[in-house]
Amino acid sequence: MTATQIPIAITQAPPYRVHEGKTAVITDGARSIGASIAQNLASKGADVVLVYLNQTSDEPAASLAAELSKAHNVKALPVRADFSTPEGCSKIVDAVEGDMPPNAQSGRPQVDILVNCAAVFHAAPLEAVGVADFHKIYSPLLPEDAKKAISIWYPLTPLSGIREWDSDEQKETADKYGGRAGCAEEIAGIVGMICSPESGWMTGCLASANGGQWMAS
Fold it and tell me: Residue 24: beta bridge partners?
């Protein structure tokens, strides 16, 4: 073996509970896609923290936590917190440190998997979106402006054409691939795959879960 060769062990298929001893935090984890992701990760052995925002989700979150704990023998903890605020984030961290089992390797509680399912959406025409509404959506995602904002491509902007319709290729692709909307379990399966140890060499990637299509009307 030369100095440039990297030995790679031939391994068998990983055990089903690949996340045993890990803690996963799922925002908006009490309903819909977030709940399906929590189900997927818990079935693989992960202890899960179900973060949700409103009091109306108290019962669904508690019910899901009890269901996951019983079905998969994991710790499932519902936490009502607004993770778009520093106080909400601190509450989530405190819950992990105070109530979740320690990591199997480090011996202390920690967040091993973070799935951000929650998002703010303001359903209104653009002219009806106020400054406060804009910052409520924008600030949690981009709290600071980019420091390197100059792009060499900006002179080409006036030469680019305006397109406000779906291309023929997009419409054909929508009919050809998938042909339907995906379900929550299918999205959860992709998240579970990306979180698995076998995806450890994947980083900085955009994984599309769209059935091979761009949705076009």
Answer: 48, 113
Q: How much is the pLDDT for 58?
A: 94
Domains of the chain: which residue ranges?
23-116, 126-199
- Residue 206 CA to residue 209 CA, distance in Å, equals 10
Class of domain 23-116: alpha beta
* pLDDT beneath 70, residues of the chain: 1-15, 140-179, 213-217
What the block records as the tokens of 163 is 């397109």
The answer to whether 18 and 109 are in contact (CB under 8 A) is no
Give the integer Cα–Cα distance in Å for 39 and 142. Answer: 30
Q: Who's near 167: CB < 8 A, 6+ residues apart?
A: none
Model confidence over 10-36: pLDDT tens digits? Answer: 455 556 888 999 999 999 999 999 999
pLDDT for position 177: 59
Distance, CA of 183 to CA of 166 (rounded, Å)? 24
